[in-house]
UniProtKB/TrEMBL annotation:
Gene Ontology terms: cellular component: extracellular matrix
Gene3D superfamilies xref list: Zona pellucida, ZP-C domain, Zona pellucida, ZP-N domain
Lineage: Eukaryota, Metazoa, Chordata, Craniata, Vertebrata
Pfam families, alphabetized: Zona_pellucida (PF00100)
InterPro entries for this protein: ZP-C (IPR055355), ZP-C_dom (IPR042235)
UniProt protein name: Zona pellucida glycoprotein 3f, tandem duplicate 2
Any GO molecular function: acrosin binding
Residue stretches making up the ZP-C domain: 123-230
GO process annotations (BP): binding of sperm to zona pellucida; egg coat formation; positive regulation of acrosome reaction
PANTHER family: SI:CH211-14A17.6-RELATED, ZONA PELLUCIDA SPERM-BINDING PROTEIN 3
Length: 277
């Protein structure tokens, strides 16, 4: 680590080995990430922190005639304590649903994508370990009556295609219950529209494909087959769309978590199997 101090700013160069380079966004000066990177011939990186002393939560103290600026360089491999949240009244700029008409027929178009800090579709599928992946699912209403979208089942798998009875599957959502919220910090974010849903999923420790069965139903109907449940460490299983009906999630610890066979049983019509890789 080398440090150059100026009158009102600092330049710090932190050399890291190639084992740490995939996690360079987990290294901080105070609360600031690196401002630039230099790649060295052997694969190591130099992280450069060029900031004013008014930034990054520098602390100041006087020692004799000297003014001392203090800060801390840290590596934070652990997970964030909380997932990102919507600003109040926020609607993603890339999907501002038009008003729905009362009747309509025809096929449905489903979407599944990784978001970039809740502001648009991510340009990269590389996620720092332990951070949160905002996974956006939506159904285009078009000429249909109003619809409510659910993630009925999601699994992580090492392949882009699921086979019947395939092994090496990691359950994320079991039959409408977000099982990943029990031990981890994954959550459904509050809906901004009934036809869309954002799952804030804590990133996994290996490269995977996320397979989700998306379904669309009448938004006026909530029951054990049409629900989105997540686990609260304080309150147990909760229903995303109407906490007053949390009893619909009471089966999440037993019967309704039974997983159906995969393959042809993942039907069409008002549902679609989507893959995010």
């Amino acid at each position: 680590i080398t440090i150059n101090c100026w009158k009102d700013s600092v330049n710090i160069t932190w050399r890291i080995s190639q084992e740490l380079t995939p996690y360079s966004t987990r290294l901080f000066l105070g609360n600031c990430i690196r401002s630039s990177v230099t790649t060295l011939p052997l694969g190591d990186w130099e992280l450069h922190f060029d900031y004013k002393f008014k930034d990054c939560k520098f602390k100041r103290k006087m020692k004799g005639k000297h003014l001392i600026h203090q800060n801390v360089l840290t590596y934070r491999p652990g997970a964030k304590s909380k997932p990102p949240a919507y600003p109040e009244g926020w609607i993603p700029p890339f999907l501002n649903p038009a008003a729905s008409v009362s009747t309509g027929h025809g096929g449905l178009v489903f979407h599944l994508a990784l978001l970039n800090q809740l502001s648009g579709i991510a340009k990269s599928n590389v996620i720092p370990l332990g951070s949160f992946m905002p996974i956006w699912a939506a159904v285009e209403q078009k000429a249909h009556q109003p619809l409510r979208l659910f993630m009925e089942e999601c699994v992580a798998a090492p392949t882009a295609e699921l086979q019947p009875e395939q092994q090496q599957l990691y359950p994320i959502i079991d039959n409408k219950c977000l099982s990943e919220s029990v031990e981890g910090n994954s959550v459904f974010l509050p809906r901004y529209h009934s036809s869309a849903l954002v799952l804030s999923l804590q990133s996994l420790m290996f490269g995977v494909y996320i397979h989700c069965k998306l379904v669309a139903w009448d938004p006026e109907v909530l029951d054990e087959s049409k629900k989105a449940c997540q686990y609260s460490k304080q309150n147990g299983w909760e229903l995303l769309d109407d906490p007053s009906q949390n009893k619909l999630c009471s089966c999440c610890d037993n019967a309704c978590r039974a997983r159906p066979r995969r393959g042809t049983e993942w039907s069409h019509g008002l549902s679609q199997l989507s893959v995010l890789g």
